[in-house]
Amino acid sequence: MKSHLLSIFIIFLLGITYSVMTLSAQEITSGKADLSAINVLLIDGQGTHNWRETTPVLERTLEETGLFDVTVTTTPAEWESVADFAPNFMDYDVILLNYCGALWSETTRAAFLQYVADGGGLVLYHSANNAFSEWKEFQNLLAVTAWGGRDADFGPYRYWDTQMRSAVQLATDGPTGSAQNHVEYVIQSIMPTHPIMRGMPEKMLHGPDELYAHLRGPVENAPEISLLAAAHSNPETGGSGRWEAVLATTNYRKGRVFQILYGHSGSQCRSVAFLVPFLRGTQWAATGIVTIPIPEDIPSEDKSYIRP
Percent of the chain at pLDDT above 90? Predict the structure, then answer.
């Protein structure tokens, strides 16, 4: 197992703690080893976004590759009944969360964390990146997150600084979570050597779509995260003015977590700038490797593509 040291420089500027990090997490080698289809458990049922629209798109996108078998499990509609939700996580190679709702039971939460810790894969799609703010250990799965009552005490801002060409942690007061207006934006690859990003263009046009900003991460897991891609959050359209993380990974013991933070609706999930990293990230979370090729219709900096 290779280990890369976390490099942190502390700068005191006007009383603000500024940390510049090389976020290159440990390589994890556990995961599915055979060549059979990757078993995906897609969990939906509650959330702040239209999961009824996006779940069928995510399921189709995965299954049309021939590499994934998807089982959709929908939590009870009643928030009080979600305590009875108890899937057998160990039957699957990777869990895909399209869920941002009521807290699961203590037993289910413990089984979920054990699944990931033992080498299970986890993919957090769009609003699921903001789930379970009241669940303390869940936060260590997240490279970046926001909302749900999180505030400056949760952790520093994490974003990409184009001049330093480094991931940055900025510990300061301010909002935790915002979203600019739906516009086109460029996905900038910032870790091209990662298996998910290897061979992908440096820049891909995507959208119009929602772009999250003012994202934070817990200090405790900083050595385990990698920011893979970022997009500029334009202040003229309601953004932060920073390059915000849009693709990220976290290592959690033996498990791999992949976050894709954009893809607000079904049509935006068929943008090639979404579906290529989504597919490759899901395969990586399940197996630790990526074999899905870069397609011919991969976007450029100036041209986006949406598949039917």
Answer: 81
Cβ atoms within 10 Å, residue 48: 14
Instruction: Tell me whether residue 86 is exposed, middle or buried, using C-beta atoms within 10 angstroms of its C-beta: 0 to 12, 13 to 18, 19 or more.
Output: exposed
Question: Do residues 245 and 251 lie in contact, with contact meaning Cβ atoms separated by under 8 Å?
Answer: no
Tokens of 172: 């300061």
What average pLDDT does the segment 256-267 reach?
97
The pLDDT of residue 125: 98
Distance CA 138, CA 161 (A): 27
The dihedral region occupied by 198, where left means phi > 0, alpha psi between -120 and 50, and beta the remainder, is beta
Looking at residue 20, its pLDDT comes to 37
**Distance between CA atoms of residues 63 and 66, nearest Å:** 5
pLDDT tens digit sequence for 141-164:
999 999 999 999 999 999 999 988
Number of helices and strands in the chain (H, E):
3, 13
236's CB contacts (< 8 A; 6+ apart) are: none
- Name the 3-class secondary structure at 116: helix
| C-alpha span between 158 and 250 (Å, rounded) | 13
d(CA 27, CA 4): 9
CA distance to 16, 20, 172, per residue, from 12 (Å): 6, 12, 12
Query: Band of the pLDDT at 33, cuts 50, 70, 90?
Result: low
Contact 265, 206 (CB under 8 A): no
At 19, list the tokens: 């940390």
> What whole-number distance in Å separates Cα of residue 73 and Cα of residue 104?
14
